[in-house]
Each structure stands twice: as C-alpha cells, then as structure tokens.
Amino acid sequence: MDEGAAAVQAWIEDWPDAAVRQRLRDIRALLQRCVPDGQERLSYRMPTMFRGGVVLHYAAFQQHIGLYPPVRDAALRARLAPWAGPKGNLQLRHDQPLPMDLIEAVVRARLAEQRR
Questions:
Q1: Which among 48, 114, 78 has a CA at the least distance from the CA of 102?
Q2: Which domains, ranges and CATH numbers included, belong to the chain?
Q3: Interval 35-57: pLDDT, tens
C-alpha cells in the first residue's frame, strides 16, 4: 500500500462511529473499483481519488458524508437533487442508505469530464 492509500485508510479508520466508518469504506471500495488506476491521498484533509486531477473528495461529518466537487452534467444533477448541498456538493445523510448507483454515476461523470 502506498503512502497516500495508507493515509486514506488511517483517516477512515480513525472515524469514531463504526457505521460511518463502514459507509466510508464502501465509498472507498467503489472508487477503487471504478478508478483502478487512480491514486488515493488526502487533499484538503479529505480522502481523495486522483486520476489526471481530482475525481472525487469525500468526507464524513456529524450528519452526512459530503462528496465534492459538484457534478456538472445537468441530467445527473437532476437525479442527485435529493442529496444536493450548498454549491452543488452532495450530502449523503447517515440516516439514509448510500445511493451507491448514483455515487458510481458521479464517479463516471467526473472521469468523463476529465477526458474532455
């Protein structure tokens, strides 16, 4: 495991709530599966997946997990409206199931943006 991946793993395992830790692990596993050639590291004190730039930052907060940066694809933004937070970032509340299919759609959209 490289230094960046180790830092991300430590950040996740340091989270005090076991249920939130598992949600973070699930997001991390999805990112690793969707971006197998990506590099993990902490950026802005958040776990981040890079591949030619930021694919996705994610971080746990008291009530939700935030995903950054905002999605630019208008059709996808409409699907993500129930989770929209300030400035177009996503807030996935801890009291709701993670929308893994939509998180994957966000990752794929971000990768498509990078290819353009």
A1: 78
A2: 3-115 (3.90.1150.200)
A3: 999 999 999 999 999 999 999 99
C-beta atoms surrounding 43 within 10 Å: 14
- Are residues 69 and 57 in contact, defined by beta-carbon separation less than 8 angstroms? yes
C-beta of residue 68 within 8 angstroms of C-beta of residue 91: no
Token output for 99: 């929308």
Q: How far apart are CA 56 and CA 77, in angstroms?
A: 15
pLDDT digits (tens, 9 = 90+) for 68-105: 998 888 899 999 999 998 888 999 999 999 999 999 99
> What's the pTM?
0.94
